[in-house]
Amino acid sequence: CTTNLAIIYNKTGQVEEAEEYLKMSFKLFENFEIGLTYAKVAGIENAYLNNNIIEAKRMAEEILPTLDGKQNFEHRISIYMILSGIYDQMGNTERAKEFINLALAENPTIINQIDIYTDLSKIYAKEKAYDKAMAYKDSIMYAKDSLNKVTNLLHFENNKIRFEMLNYQKDLEHNKALRSNERIILISLLALA
User: What is the DSSP string of 76-135?
Assistant: First the structure.
């Protein structure tokens, strides 16, 4: 999907390339609300990454009231984080903390938690509240550890399935060889009789 490519380009810092894919996304999804919302959120992130803070803020505040329901919680998290970053850049750390805490209240995924805790740690460090900054650094480590455990479990399960498939395949080949040998013996016995 063009929007996914735009997001990847945004994440890798290639914002000009992302803009090209966003233009395609807006045309492609002009009559498809879910896709258009996805593209708009990516467009807001693109404006923010392009340091077009005023436009990003305007677009974020415009779309935020439309992002209701569970299906949009990831979009809300993204918008809250962008608004937090905008207010942080504007020097309004209190407002930045409000938005980042709204993102945290959405029950984000572990990956989003890491980003949120990172932002909170940076904000508190700017405020010279080093105890809170370090507490969020600890939270980052805990979240990364949890993510690693989940990833390792998934790798273990994938390898277990792969191993079981190889064993099943080996059993099938063994059974096929046994049936072939049984046929040869049967044919030999019939030929002797």
Answer: HHHHHHHHHHHHHHTT-HHHHHHHHHHHHHT---HHHHHHHHHHHHHHHHHTT-HHHHHH
pLDDT tens per residue across span 119-130:
999 999 999 999
Whole-angstrom distance, CA of residue 149 vs CA of residue 154: 9
SS3 162: helix
The predicted model scores a pTM of 0.72
Amino acid, single-letter form, for residue 98 = E
Assess contact for 39 and 47: CB atoms under 8 A: no
Letter string b/e over residues 7-43, b meaning 16 or more CB atoms within 10 A of that residue's CB: bebbeeeebeebbebbeebbebbeeeeebbbbbbbbb
Identify the residue whose tokens are 């030999």: 188
The span from the CA of 154 to the CA of 169, in Å, is 22
Q: Which residue has the tokens 């999907």?
A: 1
Residue 75 carries which side chain, given as an amino acid letter? H
pLDDT higher than threshold 90 for residue 163: no
Instruction: Give CA–CA dist 171/165, Å, rounded.
Output: 10
